[in-house]
Structure formats: C-alpha cells, structure tokens
Design goal:
This protein has 187 residues and is α+β, with helices and mostly antiparallel strands. Helix content is 36%, strand content 29%. It has five helices and ten strands. The longest helix has 20 residues, at 2-21. The radius of gyration is 21 Å and the shape is globular.
Length: 187
C-alpha cells in the first residue's frame, strides 16, 4: 500500500514541475526606446497584465525585461508590447519568442501602404521610423501621423514584408492596414 502512495506522489510532483519551469524572465532587445515617454508607454502596456511583473525598461540598452508566471503571460506581454508599437528580439530563457503577425504578406507589393499602431511618442521616434523606412526600395513619400500612430507610404511596388522588417529592425511594430493598394492597381 505504501508503494502505491509513493507512486501517486511522484506523479503529482511531475505535473507540478512543468508549471514551475514555464515562468521566468522575458527579454526584448533592440526596442526603439529613446525617451521617458517610450519607457512609460512600454511600462504601462505591461503594468496590469495577469502573470507579468518586475518590468524593467532600459533606455541605455534599448531593452525591456519582465517576469512572466507562465507561457500565457509571456504571450500576453509580447502582444501588449506589439499593441503599444514596440518590437525587438524577444527571448524567454534561451527560447525565441515571436511577435504577433503584422499583416504583411510575402511577395505582395503595394503602391500605398498604411502602417497602424506604430509607437511614435516623440520627434526622435518619428525620425527613427522615417529613417528606417527610407531604406525600403520603391518608397517615394513617407507621411507620419503621431496622433494616429500611423505611417502612410506611397511609392512604386513596395514589398510589404520588406517594409515591416525594416520597421521591426528599428525597434517598432506596426500592422499593415487593410487598404494597401496592390502594385498592379493605379493610385
């Protein structure tokens, strides 16, 4: 009878261990963080999330770290940062953590692209996003609206994925608007 109890206790211990191991520190590096406004927005995005605590935003290293209670808290934290317009290389322990999809489609080229939900709290944010998007082939006009947190690109056969990847490398997240004009249609 005692052997059976040990077996039951061992099984219950096995189910507890994975739950404990799923929590830990999430690190997001390469985030565009140039001022106190950026820092406050990132902190506010993570502040009241269930299972997320110990948020640290470092202006010098351009990094955000937070503690996540479990995998769901990791996903909530990354989603909240994306919704606040931030992007970076995210890891949970040694595991890479993906950001949400931007709506960009591989191989799709557009003459007009609207990016929404981009973090643009100050002039330095506007300048950095503008500089990043100037590198995209085909971009002719970049219209940035800080109040709307949006960037409208006009050009010739701009690759949607290249646009988003360029913005992401600069530490920003944005969604491709539904009204992107395909390259084969007139403006």
């Amino acid at each position: 009878m005692q052997a059976a109890r040990v077996y039951v206790l061992s099984l219950s211990a096995l189910f507890l261990i994975p739950q404990i191991c799923l929590g830990g520190t999430v690190s997001v590096k390469g985030v565009h963080m140039c001022c106190g406004g950026c820092k406050s927005i990132a902190e506010d995005a993570l502040e009241d999330l269930t299972g997320v605590d110990k948020v640290v935003c470092d202006l010098n290293t351009k990094a955000i770290e937070f503690n996540a209670a479990d995998e769901k808290a990791v996903a909530r934290g990354i989603k909240a940062l994306a919704e606040a317009g931030f992007h970076g290389k995210a890891t949970h322990g040694k595991k890479a953590v993906p950001f949400p999809k931007s709506g960009a489609k591989k191989g799709v080229k557009s003459n007009i692209v609207l990016l929404t939900g981009v973090h643009l709290c100050c002039t330095a944010c506007v300048t950095a996003s503008h500089k990043a998007l100037l590198k995209v082939k085909g971009v002719a006009v970049i219209d940035i609206d800080r109040n709307e947190k949006s960037i409208k690109l006009t050009g010739d056969a701009m690759d949607q994925l290249e646009i988003v990847e360029s913005l992401n490398r600069a530490g920003f997240f944005g969604h491709i608007g539904k009204k992107a004009t395909p390259a084969n249609k007139k403006r």
